Amino acid sequence: MIDDRDFDVIIIGGSYSGLSAGMALGRALRQVLIIDSGKPCNAQTPHSHNFLTQDGQTPQEISSKARKQVANYPTIRFHEGYALSARKIDKGFEIATRSGDRFTAKKLIFATGIKDIMPNIEGFAQCWGISIIHCPYCHGYEVKHQKTAVFGNGEYGFEFSKMIHNWTEDLSLFTNGKSTLTGEQTEKLREHNINIIETEVDRFEHHQGQIKVVHFKDGSKTMLKALYARTDFEQHSDIPKALGCELTEEGYIEVDMFQKTTIDGVFACGDNTTFMRSVSNAVAAGTVAGAVVNKELIDEAF
Questions:
Q1: What are phi and psi of 280, to 5 degrees?
Q2: How many other CB atoms are there within 10 angstroms of residue 20's CB atom?
């Protein structure tokens, strides 16, 4: 429990993007509260890659180190809890938490991430982030040249298969039902020896999240090392929408190049704003959000 209740900025979400915004604001001498529920979407991912100086570290190692560094700035406070609601007040915003605490601030930054919605296929959720992966730049090198599949159909299935073919030539496309590829797309994939499997997937046999065998509903099966998939998602927090922040057609919080939402005084950064789900992108967006929020506070007070 913290004593202070009023801040310059409240950041909701204490993972990479939120911590990055917090560091920028702490270095700008701002009174900042970071509210974090401790449930990052990549908690199951064993290692993080493609982030300079941190390549191969676990997500927990990176975030723990980041939090310790941010905590060194005396104007930064942390509150472990779940932000339940927000409302506009005369001097800014008031945040209420599930535990009944209330805090106020001139500005809000949402670094709340997204929540993946898993398909109803046995073993999928257990393998997500481990051997069922979403990004070749984050995880593709570790499964290069190995037996791999893409889980998708239509335009997405075609374009993603074309991309992953750069990492492995032992590649299949699981359309999980009748293919919606065009004739030209089908021919192009077959030219590159990409096997198209239309049979629906029944379950993923795995060991501690590592896929061993894919079982199909017709009784057939195949060995597999890695599967690329894009899941549906929803915003981890519904507070931005409740405040009036507009969402994109895809369901991300709409922001401009300065991480400003469509509501004055409210910013967002990280996975809740973009399909580019990487640690490096989240950190960069958080830095921008923190710097721009500080500039707004300066302009309003000067």
A1: -65, -40
A2: 26
Residue indicated by tokens 């949402």: 110
Written as one string, the DSSP assignment of 20-46 is HHHHHHHTTT--EEEEE-S--TTTT-S
pLDDT tens digits for range 185-236: 999 999 999 999 999 999 999 999 999 999 999 999 999 999 999 999 999 9
Please state, in angstroms and rounded to a whole number, the distance separating the CA atoms of residues 132 and 210: 8
Report the alpha-carbon distance of residue 134 to residue 163 in Å, rounded.
12
Q: Which residues of 131-149 are buried (b: 16+ CB within 10 A; e: fewer)?
A: bbbbebebbbebbeeeebb
The answer to whether the pTM exceeds 0.85 is yes
**Closest alpha carbon to 247 in 278, 232, 268:** 268
Following CA atoms 106, 112, 113, 118 in sequence, which dihedral angle do they give, to the nearest 10 degrees?
A: -150
CA distance 32 to 26: 7
Q: How many residues does the chain have?
A: 302
Q: How far apart are CA 32 and CA 212, in angstroms?
A: 47
7-57 residue pLDDT tens: 999 999 999 999 999 999 999 999 999 999 887 666 667 778 878 788 778
Query: What is the DSSP annotation of 49-111?
Result: -SSTT-TT--HHHHHHHHHHHHHTSTTEEEEES-EEEEEEETTEEEEEETTS-EEEEEEEEE-
Burial 49-67 (b: 16+ CB within 10 A, else e): bbbeebeebebeebbeebb
